[in-house]
Amino acid sequence: MADPAAPAPPRPFITACATLLATGFGSGYAPFAPGTAGSALGVLLFWPLQRLGLLQQAGVAAVLFLVGVAAASHVARRVGQEDPSIVVWDEVIGMWVSLLALPFRPWVVILGFVLFRLLDVVKPYPARDLERLPLGWGIMADDVMAGIYANLILRVCLLVWPLT
């Protein structure tokens, strides 16, 4: 007889959906630099969102952040790692935060990409502390912080070198 207090085994459909999202539709399985692959996917997925206003962009990002927390938690538990390298949805959302309400111009996107990747690796305060949050919260929150920093730096760059 099964222990009624034991957690139910994950359903295959939920596991498949969580894995598909958390791995950035498979980009997390890139053999080299999966985080960079996830960030590149983030740029591609943000492209249609850039036409929306700030509230719509932020709303979509917030909802998919929360879904990402659940998916990342599910995958982390399944593979038995705190922050598995195959989970790249955090990079997707972090990249979106980097580009929120900014002009979607090639140099802005390229600089945003480079800044986000650099800040995601360096993890300036409080990003490293946010990484210690439990499960998907920690996986996702440090990348959002890196995205906030990248967005702020891009805004300063646009003040110094405005687009004409």
Can you give keywords for this protein?
mainly alpha, elongated, 68% helix, 164 residues
Describe the structure.
By secondary structure, the protein is mainly α. It has one domain (33-160). It is built from seven helices and no strands. α2 packs across α4 (89-99) and α4 (89-99) crosses α5.
Describe the secondary structure blueprint for this structure.
Elements: H1 12-22, H2 34-49, H3 54-79, H4 89-99, H5 106-122, H6 127-130, H7 135-160
Helix pairs in contact: 1-3, 2-4, 2-5, 3-4, 3-7, 4-5, 4-7, 5-7
Give the rounded overall mean pLDDT: 92
Number of helices: 7
Please count the beta strands (DSSP E, at least 2 residues each): 0
How many distinct folded domains?
A: 1
The coarse overall form would be elongated
Name the helix and strand elements from N-terminus to C-terminus, one letter apiece.
HHHHHHH
What is the radius of gyration computed over CA atoms, rounded to a whole number of angstroms? 17 Å
End-to-end separation in angstroms reads: 71 Å
Largest sheet: none
Structural class: mainly alpha
Fraction in beta strands:
under 5%
Helix coverage percent: 55-70%
Low-confidence stretches: none
